[in-house]
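Q: Structure tokens for this one, please.
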Amino acid sequence: MAGATSLLKHRFPERYPRSAAPMIYRAPGRVNLIGEHTDYNDGFVLPITIEFACYAAVAPSTSLGNQVRVYSEDLLKGAELPAAGIADANPRGDWSDYVFGIAKQLVERGHAVPPLDILIHSTVPIGAGLSSSAALEISSALALSGNSIDDRLELARIGRAAENQFVGLPCGIMDQFISVFGREHAAIKIDCRSLEYEEVALPENVVILAVNTMVKHELGASAYRERVRECAEAVEYIRHAHPAIQSLRDATLDMLDAAMPEVPRNRARHVIGENERVVEFAAASRQGNLERMGELFVASHRSLQHDYEVSCEELDFLVDAAIALPGVYGARMTGGGFGGCTVNLVNPDDVVHFRDRISRTYRDKFQVAPQIYECRPSAGAGPI
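A: Here is the predicted structure, written as tokens:
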């Protein structure tokens, strides 16, 4: 955190030399422990926030045209939009949509967005499935609003709405929610229908490691939309016999009859089983039952691999390699899929050996070195 804030304090006056000293806001990325592709089906998820975060430095703009100006230190790219034209803004198809989509949501909800100068720096790896986009959205929401939104749930809703309506990805609310509500030392179990949540204590004698495949297959965005559609199709089939069913959250496995086409049936089977795994994992975590937690990790991955079909060769290889190593309780893909990271539960005494073996094994197979991150639950978004 200190390095990121120091960088922004140094670079801000270079980028915007006539601006006042900025305020700096931080929003973390996340690792989802279990509960994948359940959030847009009104289900349960169990993420943790991580120490990687997006930082936004902001001050009143000194631009002659009363612009909202934003620049990314990571991408070395900038964009601007007249503050008076935010309500009429349209997507540009680049990273700035995450910022200006937030600005448009704020204006539509009655919040004033004056001319501002914003400098962005993120330590969340892009394309790793660690929610760099939600971290950018929430840090931007804090900067654009001047941290004036007291309702923290509204902050998460603004982030999701920007991604759904402006960026154009039909995601659930998990990523934005956990970025706002994350806690140190605990996971957060979220009911994505009611938006009620509770802290789930994690065992102290385990290390959570994310392993980055270093790939992100292009299929990811289009397949995400397909899965949303396929889940809706499954609901329609189930409702023929069970009219009260509103989403896969309400369904049970015995509702999946043979008349349903194979693809939506498989998608529904994953979501129904995954919701059950979240509930059971949370209970096992509170009991310190690492063996059961690990079993649920692997079961989740196999369901994502075979029923939901969002894994890939690199993710499957990392999971298979990890669970063969001593001291590994379980491994699974995390995030949307088709690349990104696995998440692994590892005995603290075996972390060094795990890092060495998984790196060498993966490098030998794919001729690329994976990045490995230790994931410690961190605080949610706010000012620095």
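A few notes: The chain is about 40% helix and 25% strand. The longest strand covers residues 44-60.
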